[in-house]
Amino acid sequence: xxxxxxxxxxxxxYLPERVVPNAEFAQTLxxxxxxxxxxxxxxxxxxxxxxxxxxxxxxxxxxxALDNAGLGANDIDAVIVxxxxxxxxxxxxxxxxxxxxGMRKGFAFDIQAVCAxxxxxxxxxxxxxxAGQAKRVLVIGAETFSRIMDWTDRGTCVLFGDGAGAxxxxxxxxxxxxxxxxxLASDLNSDGQYRDLLYVDGGVSRTGTSGVLRMxxxxxxxxxxxxLAATANTSLDSAGLQASDVDWVVPHQANLRIIxxxxxxxxxxxxKVVVTVQDHGNTSAASIPLALSVANAEGRFKQGDLIVTxxxxxxxxxxxxxxxx
Length: 325
Hints:
This protein is α/β, with parallel strands linked by helices. The chain has helices spanning 22-26, 33-40, 54-69, 93-101, 117-130, 217-238, 256-266, 277-280, 287-297; strands at 3-14, 18-21, 44-47, 78-82, 107-111, 136-144, 162-174, 182-190, 198-200, 213-215, 248-251, 306-313, 317-324. It is 31% helix and 27% strand. It is globular, with a radius of gyration of 18 Å.
């Protein structure tokens, strides 16, 4: 049977120029490089310049993805940006990307599911392609989390960074079998009763301020490993596959201990896991597309590889996507 599949045509990413090593935090906080690395695996992260915004990061990542695909802006039908740190309350960052690329057709919108945002965006883009609403969708994760940090809270401010990653999803014909290239299955979840575990304490309607990030790290960790492994297995089941079929896991890059714990729960060796958290920190919705693009640029993926992506973030919101490269 002929089906339409949403296949990754290309990837691209962008990181701000400024690199912030752990040692920089030790100058103002009761912390050290050893303390940060032992608890998170993070060694450095990138921070956006004062005049550099989420839309700028997203546009740069998008241009890289277009260049890598040999496509122009008007070859794209839709732009979806996953972000929790938009330039403005509105309009959507995606519309600024559309304008910045010189794209004069199609549609653009943002998705807000915090660290799980890219997984949610990828699933939605796949739905648009399978429904015939779009043939090519530019899916971007972009964040400037450095703008919502409490610089006196050593438990959170050392964990996050800024960056952007992009993929171009393209409609291609498939057979309906799980050997097809493209997105094979997804699983999306939220449970709002856990809001207080990870949130920003400001907002337009409530305080009229942007606020800063608050997190109960131990509780988030406890939920993360269990929920990430479960959602990955659910997506694999939906595709008629199992963990032993997986070539690569590209997880949300929040914490090395969470990444290791999830791999162990899935029964997969760390050799099959793409890890970039040491260089980027937690870039929220940008972390999976960043990791995909970095690994792809290094030539680690080959056509036909089975890849699982999974993420959890504020909400709590979590999910996974299984795709064949």
